[in-house]
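Title: [Solved] Uridylate kinase 3D structure

Original question kept below for reference.
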Amino acid sequence: MPELAYRRVLLKLSGEALMGDEDYGIDPKMIGRLAREVIEAQQAGAEVALVIGGGNIFRGAGLAASGMERVTGDHMGMLATVINALAMQDALEKLGGKARVMSALKINDVCEDYIRRRAIRHLEKGRLVIFAAGTGNPFFTTDSGAALRAIEIGADLLLKATKVDGVYDKDPKKHADAVRYDTLTYDEVIQRNLQVMDTAAFALCRDSGLPLRIFDMGQPGVLLRVLQGEDIGTLVSGRS
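Solution (posted by the thread starter after getting help):
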């Protein structure tokens, strides 16, 4: 098996990724497949942390747009990420993995509080760590939470799993002439307003020198191939 190019990574999944063919909630087949990808990567020697959004259940900004007070909506969205994290923990442990959910909100009866040094120790001990509840603050997305946690644990790479095979200059589903970028700098992403993650997340990665790879998680085995250094999707870093 090829050597890993990255040893410690954080994988950001959207809540919608868990829905599979369902209209809402969690598709057991889909979360099982994603869990197998993570286990495969860990068995190859990677230390893997995850952040999962909550859009399959609640999205704070969407609730606020419907008239709900923004802070309340964001707190509901954070709790949705805890639900998804617990579901992923269950799926990973069914496959023999050892997983810990660490929440930025205090919910001691169902998961651990987030403590940076403890999270790093879990990874060093061969446990999979799922960070829930974003940053614990309203007005910040789970993309920003993923970037923050990746920096805090000293990740070699931040992975953003999407339904498209990288970053395009325009929506490839609407424009047949859309061009995919193989590489971008963080400044280029921000200047061109390529909205694959929020600007705060990109700025955090840029300022910390953390590379980001955006790729399509729909292909079986793709996570391990990315960790082995294959040029899949779009790499965003400080240099083009």
